[in-house]
């Protein structure tokens, strides 16, 4: 029992060797269900069952460490990252390009500066003022035309009077 | 020989100087008037030279009529001076008529009505259009000068009022902005 305690302590501290772990597993396998080591027994049984279920080979750790330490693997990762960055940059550049080089897109109105818009409004108002006076003069000219037409009509009346006189003279009245 | 060359040089310098003096005297009177009064007390000034496409974009943004957009596109410079009679000592109408030389201008209209006096001048361009027009207004409370340069048809200007009169969407937009 004392040995199990020692080995368990070493195991949980991560100081146990593979051989010691094997011994510990063997000792725990012999433990009864009423033992105080029942929990540890269940844990190690679970580890064993998982180990047998997986296809991970015994040299799995070695392989991983080897792969991590190999320079080639690092290069491949760096290239992939670089590729991704370039792709993202290209997409962003394309979006910016579309935004700025399509003059009549929907966002065009948002690009007008406040000063340009203010200038436009002032110009419009100035033209409207000019328009008002031009139309005022035009309306007065139109009135003059009406008077002109009336005078022409009056002129025609004088012809009637002339012919009347002519008729009276002819009749000798 | 040397003296002759010296005399020719002097003559050339004299000609150049006289040309410079004549040319500087011919600078636009209206422009110098605006420069002089733009910073005067109680005078509000506006100077606007739209960049390429700015007018068209602004007109599109305001959903202006096609005719208005076309007219606005051709405007190069707009200068406005306004003086409130209560604040400014100067009456821009009187000052402009005194100071500006209208030799190159043609008078388009003149209105006199109670306290209101209006004169409008223009410089003709080809195709019955004008390249500059100047509106000088004196009203009860304020006097103002509006100078617009660009290729403009005065008939198009007269249409603006009728567009506004119909309760056209532009008017309210411009006023609320």
Number of strands of chain B: 6
* Number of distinct helices of chain A: 6
Q: Which structural class matches the secondary elements of chain B?
A: alpha+beta
Name the chain pair whose interface involves the most residues. Answer: A-B, 29 and 41 residues
Quantity of strands of chain A, as a count: 0
* Content of β-strand of chain A: under 5%
Residue stretches of chain A low in confidence (pLDDT < 50, at least 5 long) are: none
Q: Give the % helix of chain B.
A: 40-55%
Q: Rough shape of chain A?
A: rod-shaped
Class by alpha and beta content of chain A: mainly alpha
For the residues shown, what is the average pLDDT of chain A?
A: 80
Oligomer: heterodimer
SSE pattern of chain B, N- to C-terminal: HHEHHEHEEEEHH
Distance between the termini of chain B: 74 Å
Note the gap between the termini of chain A. Answer: 167 Å
Strand order of the largest sheet of chain B: 1-2-6-5-4-3
Shape of chain B: extended
* Share of β-strand residues of chain B: 25-35%
Give a structural overview.
The complex is a heterodimer of chains A (173) and B (177). With 173 residues, chain A is mainly α. Chain A folds into three domains: 2-54, no CATH class; 61-111; 113-173. Chain A contains six helices and no strands. In chain A, 9% of the residues are buried. Chain B is built from seven helices and six strands; from the N terminus they run ααβααβαββββαα. A six-stranded antiparallel sheet of chain B has the order 1-2-6-5-4-3, sandwiched between helices. In chain B, helix 3 packs antiparallel against helix 4. Classes of the chains: A mainly alpha (173), B alpha+beta (177). Chain A binds chain B through residues 103, 108-109, 111-113, 116-138, and chain B through 46, 48, 50-51, 53-55, 57-62, 64, 68, 71-72, 75, 78, 80, 108-109, 111, 118, 120, 133, 135, 137, 146, 148, 154, 157-162, 164, 170, 174, 177.
Name the descriptors.
A: 173 residues, mainly alpha, 6 helices, rod-shaped, B: 177 residues, extended, disordered C terminus
């Amino acid at each position: 029992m004392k040995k199990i305690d020692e080995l368990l302590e070493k195991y949980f501290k991560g100081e146990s060797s593979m051989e010691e772990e094997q011994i510990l597993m063997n000792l725990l396998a012999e433990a009864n269900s009423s033992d105080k080591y029942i929990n540890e027994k269940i844990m190690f049984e679970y580890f064993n069952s998982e180990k047998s279920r997986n296809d991970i080979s015994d040299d799995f750790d070695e392989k991983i460490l080897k792969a991590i330490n190999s320079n080639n693997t690092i290069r491949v990762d760096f290239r992939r990252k670089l590729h991704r960055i370039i792709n993202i940059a290209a997409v962003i550049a394309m979006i910016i390009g579309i935004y700025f080089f399509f003059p009549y897109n929907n966002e065009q109105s948002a690009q007008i500066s406040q000063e340009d818009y203010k200038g436009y409004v002032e110009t419009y108002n100035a033209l409207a003022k000019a328009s008002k006076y031009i139309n005022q003069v035009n309306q007065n000219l139109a009135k003059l035309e009406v008077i002109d037409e009336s005078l022409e009509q009056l002129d025609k009346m004088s012809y009637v009077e002339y012919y009347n006189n002519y008729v009276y003279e002819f009749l000798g009245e | 020989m040397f003296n002759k060359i010296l005399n020719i040089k002097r003559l050339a310098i004299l000609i150049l100087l006289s040309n410079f003096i004549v040319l500087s005297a011919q600078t636009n009177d209206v422009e110098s008037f605006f420069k002089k009064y733009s910073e005067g007390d109680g005078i509000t000034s506006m100077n606007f030279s739209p960049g390429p496409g700015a007018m068209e974009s602004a007109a599109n943004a305001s959903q202006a009529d096609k005719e208005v957009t076309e007219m606005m596109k051709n405007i190069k410079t707009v200068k406005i001076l306004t003086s409130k009679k209560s604040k400014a000592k100067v009456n821009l109408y009187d000052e402009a008529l005194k100071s500006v030389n209208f030799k190159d201008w043609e008078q388009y209209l003149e209105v006199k009505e109670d306290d209101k006096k209006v004169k409008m001048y223009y410089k003709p361009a080809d195709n019955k259009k004008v390249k500059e027009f100047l509106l000088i207004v004196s009203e009860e409370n304020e006097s103002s000068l509006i100078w617009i340069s660009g290729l403009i048809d005065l008939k198009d200007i007269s249409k603006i009022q009728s567009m506004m009169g119909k309760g056209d969407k532009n008017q309210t937009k411009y006023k609320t902005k």
